[in-house]
Amino acid sequence: MEPLASRIRPSNLNEFCGQAHLVGPGKPLRLAIENGHVFSFILWGPPGTGKTTLARIYSNAINAQFYELSAVSAGKEDIRRIIKEGSLDGGPRVLFLDEIHRFNKAQQDFLLPYVESGDLVLIGATTENPSFEVISALLSRMRVFVLNELGPIEMSAIIDRTGFQLDKASKDWLVQMANGDARQAITMIENTAELYDRIALDTLKETLQSKFLRYDKRGEEHYNVISAFIKSMRASRPDAAIYYLARMIESGEDPKFIARRMVIFASEDIGLAQPTALVVANEVFRAIETIGLPECVHNLAHGVAYLANAAKDRSATDAIGAAMEDVKKFGNLPVPMKIRNAPTKLMKRLGYGKDEGNDPEGDLMPEKLRGRKYF
Which pTM value belongs to this model? Predict the structure, then answer.
């Protein structure tokens, strides 16, 4: 059976909720849809804010053949297949590429000539900043539209569209739980109806704990698993760290998010005990950018095993923390004269760069912090 979110998906802008800055009267995306303007663009915004729906509405408006792929599982062969099929009536072909940030550089390069030639109208959807995730050559040929998180009024209207009656307490709780993600709210309603045959505050809360609810990359489970992952590496437990890595990968977590946390961990927790950890973590991140899923799982596993088994030393982390506390407490303390830059004669006459012998230990700290040790 078709999911509820698909069954109630708006087919035109009059039914669409939210993003008034893009689809309100006289706004850019509405004008493009109303005028049938053919161009490629990126929809950047949080989950469940209408990216797929807007892509479909736009495709219908320009009478295009609509192809939908997820960058998580798609590859060059899928693009080739779409190109080979050709257009049935000579009209435009829209490729909606969800999570376009998951395509690596080589895959994005492969798309470029088809976008340039107009063989494909590319609509990319992403939750990540396209400036960092989409190659500049492709980005320069696409317009970027930024979608906002849906507000309580918009979320309430979308919940009403499901056709299920919710009392005020249930609706208020659901709006707060979904945190601007319409798809999550709709999925919660659908799962609750299937599991309990009634929708109330208690059954919604029960469903939230149910295994039937999808992994939410912004919800509690996301933070629980990434926390367990970091703590397992910190405790030098590679088996546990690999298990939580597998949990995140299987749940659809962005491997770049995982790799970023590994780079932070390499300096924060391993630090001076094994400085090469930062080199390894950075190379894992670069490998992920180059290779992408599914093969980059091996790079992640390699890096996680290395970081978990590495010696740990938080002295640099503790030192910068203590130093920042002193900066906040004391403000801009005067730098000792002997280590100030003296590029002019006037500054030299004022004593800049002159050793006055008032720092016998030579620790070079401001006078108020003389003798302070962070390491």
Answer: 0.59
